[in-house]
Amino acid sequence: MEGLISVIVPCYNQAEFLEECLTSVLNQTYSNWECIIINDGSADLTEEVAKKWTKNDKRFKYIYQENKGLSSARNTGLAQAKGEYIQFLDSDDFLDQEKFLKSIKEFSKPQVDIVISDFILFNEATNSLENPYCVLGEHQFNLDSILFEWGEKFSIPIHCALIKSKVLIGYSFPTELKAREDWSLWVFLYKSCIVTIFINEPLAYYRQHDMSLTKNFRLMSLEKIKAIGIVEQLISKEKSLKLYKNHIQEISKEYTVLQNRYFGVLNSRTYRLACFFKNNLISLRKILNRHSK
Fold first, then answer.
1. What is the DSSP letter of 3?
2. Is residue 232 assigned to a domain?
3. Among 119, 168, 215, 245, which one has the highest count of C-beta atoms within 10 angstroms of its own C-beta?
4. pLDDT digit string (tens) for 161-206?
5. How large is the angle between the packed helices 46-56 and 15-26, nearest 10 degrees?
């Protein structure tokens, strides 16, 4: 039998999606896996759902911890994982039943460290599949692309990857981040000369829903500068300076867009009418106040 795959499933108040997530693990055509479910202090039915699965199949394991965030939950899973390979899988996402088998076959090739598959979106609101938010390709799996194009041109959903556990030795997710924590993982991996195989087939499903952190644009923006501070510890000074320079340029562009919108609103007919009525209302209130005395 081929090597053991450790599936790490952090869950925080997403019991409604956990069933489908774990079903996609159970249905894998490759059977040598363990699935570690980390309940990060959920207040919903996460524990009840998880324990049902551990009762029915011993390959599922359950861990509870006080709420410490996604990075901490993933680190807990990594500490408990026994597999030769690591599969990260957030509790609101799910996998194609062939993902493990097709990925494991690629590891038979010389010196392969990571196998990355393509992905597809699942729209929770419409219950339908949609094209991915970016196009993945082998040309992106290098340090410079990860550093300077991440979030602007592409990003890799973490469950697209099956990773040899040995290349993760020495890594832990930064617990001070509430978003962009997976960026540091990819930088850590690609700062070394690791060998990547790409499966140009969607074997991972990325769920879009209202609770998704990636929809919180303000949080994502605020966390980027913190993430850069963490990532710069992994790379050269030259690349760090370029990273900060690029971020300054991004902020400048965003500021220009917001400034143009602001002046556009100021000069709009709707805004001028609103000011007119507001000023008239203030005048009327003053007159009424004088007459009421």
1. P
2. no
3. 119
4. 999 999 999 999 999 988 889 999 999 999 998 999 999 999 999 9
5. 20
- Cβ contacts of 83 within 8 Å, gap of 6 or more: 3, 4, 5, 6, 33, 34, 165
Same domain, 86 and 199: yes
Cβ 102 vs Cβ 203: under 8 Å: yes
**253-285 confidence digits (pLDDT tens):** 776 776 677 677 767 777 676 776 566 666 556
**Residues 58, 190 within the same domain:** yes
State pTM to two decimals.
0.85
Q: Are residues 171 and 251 in the same domain?
A: no
| CA 122 – CA 159 distance, rounded (Å) | 14
- Asked whether the beta carbons of 9 and 77 are under 8 A apart, the reply is yes
Assigned token pair, 73: 């939950």
In the block, tokens 């966390």 appear at 223
Structural domain contains residue 231 = no
Element of type H or E holding 196: strand 196-208
Give the domain range for residue 135. Answer: 5-215
Beta strands in 5-123 (DSSP E): 5-11, 33-40, 60-65, 85-88, 94-95, 114-123
User: CA-CA distance, 282 to 275, in Å (whole number)?
Assistant: 10
Rounded distance, CA 245 to CA 93, Å?
34
Q: Domain end: 215, 233, 250, which one?
A: 215
